[in-house]
Amino acid sequence: MRLRIKDLSFSYDSIKAIDNVSMEINEGEVLGIIGPNGAGKSTLLKCINSILKPRVGTVLVDGEDILKLRKDEVAKRVAMVPQNSLTSFPFTVLDVVLMGRIPHLGKLGRESERDLKIAEEAMRTTFVLSLADRSVDELSGGEFRRVIIAMALAQEPSILLLDEPTLHLDISHQLGIMELIRRLTAEKKLATILVSHDLNLAAKFCDKLILLNSGKIYSAGSVEEVLNRENIKQVYGVEAQVIRSNGLVYVIPIKPI
Ligand code: ADP
Ligand code: MG
Fold first, then answer.
1. pLDDT tens digits, residue range 180-238?
2. How far is the CA of 214 from the centre of ligand 1 (A)?
3. Does 107 score more than 80 pLDDT?
């Protein structure tokens, strides 16, 4: 088991954002986290990435409790593609991807040939190598998203976290990013968690789903188990049609209840 989360809880002052969450993911698996706004999805990713420090619970990566590790040690194991990775600085694509090597650099903080090679390989697999010298503030949304995924890969993580990776992308780029995530998860033997508001994309590309509501796991399991009319009604407050066809599940929202 690559990632095992046990009894995790986290509060922002008075708001209990994550309430006793447990889950397990194997290498090569993509887990989708779905749920309404404010359910705690982003908070959960930040806890797994140790940006937030939960006082209760454990996050085990290959059996090791990463909540007890220093930040740079966490960053060698867990990489995050955040929801709003914006930059207004005119860094080049290569600069940004090399930032993924920071946790691996020695005391002098200088990149070696090896770091450059790893950054290049990350750009190649995400199809941004030809953009290496371009400034990131000139890229399209889809290109920029791939650059941030390349930076995450340059960390050489075993866990990849993505917060709404297809947000604001057209349908072609949505499919492109999801296919990229699936391929990288298999090739690099990652355990991947992605947050998505797009239930149909999540259904198509995830091995299993967790439906989060008010910081708690409302439902967890296969796509077929989690995406049903009753769960969607209870958690989103929406009457939906759920179509099952050729092993795929499609959700069509009809009206609020
Ligand atoms: P989601 O990503 O599912 O939309 P979040 O994890 O962002 O949900 O938020 C979960 C809950 O925690 C919400 O009630 C939100 O208002 C609260 N919250 C999120 N970030 C903070 C913060 N920095 N300070 C205080 N409360 C926060
Ligand atoms: Mg969020």
1. 999 999 999 999 999 999 999 999 999 999 999 999 999 999 999 999 999 999 999 99
2. 10
3. no
Asked whether 98 and 113 are in contact (CB, 8 A), the reply is: no
Q: Which of 8, 9, 12 to mutate to test the pocket of ligand 1 (most atoms within 8 A of CB)?
A: 12
- Work out the average pLDDT over 163-172: 93
Say yes or no: CB of residue 210 within 6 Å of ligand 1: no
The matching CATH number, chosen from 3.30.950.30, 3.30.565.10, 3.40.50.2000, 3.40.50.300, for 3-256 is 3.40.50.300
Domain boundaries, the chain: 3-256
Rounded to two decimals, the pTM is: 0.96
Give the SS3 label for residue 31. Answer: strand
* Residue-level pLDDT at 158: 97
Nearest to 89 by CA among 147, 135, 143: 135
Amino acid, single-letter form, for residue 141: G
Task: Name the nearest CA neighbour of 160 among 94, 242, 61.
Answer: 61
Ligand 1 atom closest to the Cα of residue 44 is 6
Q: Is the CB of 38 under 6 A from ligand 1?
A: yes
Is the beta carbon of 42 within 6 A of some atom in ligand 1? yes
Q: Give the C-alpha separation, 114 to 179, whole Å.
A: 28
Residue 83 has pLDDT above 90, yes or no: no
Grade residue 7 by pLDDT with cuts at 50, 70 and 90: very high
- Cα–Cα distances in Å, from 178 out to 77, 162, 195, 198, 241? 22, 11, 12, 11, 24
